[in-house]
Design a protein that fits this description.
This protein folds into three domains: 2-110, Trigger factor ribosome-binding domain (Alpha-Beta Plaits, 2-Layer Sandwich); 124-131 and 259-443, Trigger factor, C-terminal domain (Trigger factor, domain 2, Orthogonal Bundle); 150-244, Chitinase A, domain 3, CATH 3.10.50.40. Helices cover 45% and strands 21% of the residues. It contains twelve helices and eleven strands. The chain has helices spanning 21-38, 51-81, 134-147, 250-255, 262-297, 304-321, 339-358, 365-376, 382-390, 393-413, 425-429, 432-443, and strands at 2-9, 12-19, 91-96, 103-110, 124-129, 150-154, 163-172, 175-188, 210-216, 230-244, 417-422. One of its GO terms (molecular function) is peptidyl-prolyl cis-trans isomerase activity.
């Protein structure tokens, strides 16, 4: 076997492989002999078919089978010999494929890039530092009460804290418009879900009252034909309801899994969950800074095959997330929707793998168990969760990836400059985008 490798562009390689004619012809002859022993042909007893007839009848088919098998095996040997690390499947094409001539074929493939991770010694990371105060705990308790609140009809005028049930129809220049009508709609008067100004005009109304509500659709409204238009909604108020919060009693505590210990045990359990959420959020924010810095500091070509695979995975995730039908063809979703995310994920995976290799980072069983035990704390039966993850090969692989990723971030943080920033619990758990927007508003 003779092998030559040509770099065609970036990560693409064209491997040309020659296999001696004798190797192919001998393999074809051996296969034809085996075929002759079992072939059923009218006019001949089994095993007595002349080889000339067998070759004429089956020669082309047998040669195609042999050549296909030889190209696959010789390709593997060639990339091993040339120390190529293919990313995805090759395109294999025969150039010379004739009896008595050396077989020549080419395999076009992409290889993994050689990634040498740039040090992050200049990286400055901001790490939020916060704790759960009694005031934070009180706020969360009220949030949980609101989740279990009931709405009770009242015989009085509505306040902005109430909910009304309404029938309505919208008109522009006296004409009803499509999508502007509903019956029996529940609307919280401080929900902010309707057109600006709509809810406020219903404050003070009572059950059975009719009200004309005048509004202007925002310029960025989703319906093109309604943008910036003045409208009048004819509204009938069917009922007014006020929110009734549950008492902090044993029945309420049981809704959140606290069977004993009363208010003290309930608050302790809620605080523990809040602290867990706080820790995870802070880790996520720090990790995001490291990940963004890694991607920005390391520029290299990414194999198209890996990006395509990631796009297909993201397509499947999207279908599952949004509840598409079981027979929905995920490939119908445009690749452009997932291109940027796929490139980022592939690049991050390659960089992470390079760090793991260069720093000889490993995920031991003790690391996996500690990680999943932390993960299982919020479940009703933590041990069942631990046993499930540790006893399932696929779950263990996911655990290993998560643990390795966490260790990589820790290793890179050791090289970076970490600046701890004191902040409130609320600010610490805000998504980065919201936190930055809040800072900009304060600055203005």
């Amino acid at each position: 076997m003779q092998v030559s490798v040509e770099t065609t562009s970036g990560l693409e390689r064209r491997v040309t492989i020659q296999v001696p004619a004798a190797q192919i012809d001998n393999a074809v002859d051996e296969r034809l002999v085996q075929t002759a022993k079992s072939a059923r042909i009218n006019g001949f007893r089994r095993g007595k078919v002349p080889m000339s007839f067998v070759r004429r009848q089956f020669g082309a088919e047998v040669r195609a089978e042999v050549v296909s098998e030889v190209m696959r095996t010789q390709y593997v040997e060639a990339i091993t010999q040339e120390k190529l690390n293919p990313a995805g499947y090759p395109e294999i094409e025969a150039n010379v494929n004739e009896a008595g001539k050396d077989l020549e074929f080419t395999a076009t493939l992409e290889v993994y890039p050689e990634v040498e991770v740039a040090p992050l010694t200049d990286l400055a990371v901001e790490k939020p530092v916060a704790s759960v105060s009694d005031e934070d705990l009180d706020k969360m308790t009220e949030v949980l009460r609101q989740q279990q609140a009931k709405w009770v009809e009242v015989e009085r005028a509505a306040t902005e804290e109430d909910r009304v049930n309404i029938d309505f129809e919208g008109f522009i220049d006296g004409e009803a418009f499509e999508g502007g009508k509903a019956e029996g709609h529940d609307l919280g008067l401080n929900s902010g879900t309707f057109i600006p100004g709509f809810e406020a005009q219903l404050v003070g109304t009572s059950a059975g009252e009719d009200k004309d509500v005048s509004v202007t659709f925002p310029e960025d409204y989703q319906a093109e034909q309604l943008k910036g238009k003045d409208a009048v909604f004819k509204v009938k108020v069917n009922s007014v309801s006020e929110q009734q919060l549950p008492e902090l009693d044993e029945d309420f505590f049981k809704l959140y899994g606290v069977e004993e210990g009363g208010l003290e045990a309930f608050r302790a359990d809620v605080k523990k969950n809040m602290e867990r959420e706080l820790e995870q959020t802070i880790k996520g924010k720090v990790k995001e800074q490291v990940v963004d810095a890694l991607i920005a500091a390391n520029q290299f070509d990414i194999p198209k095959a890996l990006i395509d695979n990631e796009i297909n995975a993201l397509r499947q995730q999207a279908v599952q997330q949004f509840g598409g039908p079981a027979d929905f063809d995920a490939s119908a979703l445009p690749a452009e929707l997932f291109q940027d995310q796929a490139e980022k994920r592939v690049k991050l995976g390659l960089v992470m793998a390079s760090v793991v290799e260069s720093k000889e980072i490993k995920a031991e069983d003790d690391d996996l168990r500690a990680y999943v035990e932390k993960l299982a704390e919020s479940y009703q039966d933590p041990q069942e969760v631990v046993d499930y993850y540790m006893g399932n090969d696929q779950m263990r692989q996911q655990l290993e990836s998560a643990v390795l990723e966490e260790k990589v971030v820790d290793a890179l943080l050791a090289e970076a400059s970490v600046n701890e920033v004191e902040m409130s619990y609320d600010d610490a758990i805000k998504p980065v985008e919201k936190a930055e927007a809040a800072e900009e508003e304060v600055a203005e």
